[in-house]
Amino acid sequence: MDRKIFSNISKIIERDSKSSTYKFALLRGTIDIIQDNSPYIDIRENRVHIPTGLLIEKWLLYYYPILESKTKIPQINSNANLAFELQFIKLIENYKSRGGFSAFYNDLKNKGIPADLKTDFFKLTKELRNTITKMPMRYIGRSINHEFYSVYVRENTTRLSNSSGIDIERLINDFGSFSIPIEYYEAFKLLGSFINGQDSILFQWAEFSVNASNNNLSTEKVLSEVLKSPITERDILESKKLYKSILEKTGKVYCVWTGKKLNKYDVDHVIPFSVWKNNDLWNLLPSSSSLNRNSKKDKIPPPIMIEKQKDLILDYWDIIYKEQSNRFKKEIQIALLGNHPFSVWKEKGIEQLQESCNYLIENRGFEEWKI
């Protein structure tokens, strides 16, 4: 299988728009359908065709408990609602007295949606189809080739009529279809359960612990504990405070990325903390506050940018080394130098930093930062 496909999938997950959870729901739904080995999957030449109704079913199952939850679980990066949210909540309210989530799914799969809810449910499923086909399907893959519908293609979008009952069979037969390249289908078939998390090491670890506790623990509780980082927000603030106190002694501070003199600045993680839980002093550098907050954020500086700003990076490393020699020496040795002697810390440190950033961009799919 082409290694590039796995790289593309990683880039889609990391780089494509994250303004809402639509992208994740589309990828999760597609993978679940493939993992279910649905008999409706139709392979034709180099593309795999799937009924859009199967995706609508998955989205109904994903978003129902989220929107029903008493705890607010944000699904979009603004105060706006999901495109189908109000219509969905109306359905959830109607099912509260009918048996809730399980009763709804039983109706969808077997009995059919009750006649008094048919019109509202039809509006919801139509809105779900429009959202799926016009939003995530349109944009997924743009980080790779800048084209719309570059991975997902709408193959059949029939006009819908609210003239008859609606159940899962009608969703499959009447709501059109989509296709994906066969290479993506094969990748999702092979590694989809790992991408979705059901077979990931962390999930299996959590399930083992739940079973070993005789189900006295929940998977969610175990995962929250397993994923805890030893580096707290307080640790980060203290490191940044230490860094700033050292810089104040130098008199002048320059943005490491632009070289401009700064009056106000942020102490920024070169490799974002969200990407690599690393709070080492070498990974902290001063940058323009506006540049850091509005442009860089969680993006990765490419090797060429590090090379261009190498002298300034090394100047700051040298300042920190002189003030915090033991800590700096230990941290850079473990994170960047490895088996190389400390005597070559400047050359090898920059070289490994470039290699690490290149790996995160090219292999892990994180977004490259461009000023």
Written description of the protein model:
The protein has 371 residues and is α+β, with helices and mostly antiparallel strands. The chain has 2 domains: 196 residues, no CATH class; 130 residues, no CATH class. Helix content is 56%, strand content 8%. It has a 4-stranded antiparallel beta sheet with strand order 1-2-4-3. Strands 5-6 form a two-stranded antiparallel sheet. α3 crosses α9 and α17 crosses α18. It starts with a helix and ends in a 9-residue tail after the last helix. One of its GO terms (molecular function) is endonuclease activity. It comes from Psychroflexus salinarum. InterPro entries: HNH_nuc. This is HNH endonuclease domain-containing protein.
What spatial order of strands do you see in the largest sheet? 1-2-4-3
Unreliable spans:
none
- CA-CA gap between termini: 35 Å
Quote the beta fraction: 5-15%
* Spatial shape: elongated
Sketch the major β-sheet: 4 strands, antiparallel
What portion of residues is helical? 55-70%
Structural class, by secondary structure, is alpha+beta
Radius of gyration: 25 Å
Integer average pLDDT: 92
Please indicate the count of domains: 2
The number of E-state strands comes to 8
Number of distinct helices: 18
| H-E string | HHEEHHHHHHEHEHHHHEEEEHHHHH
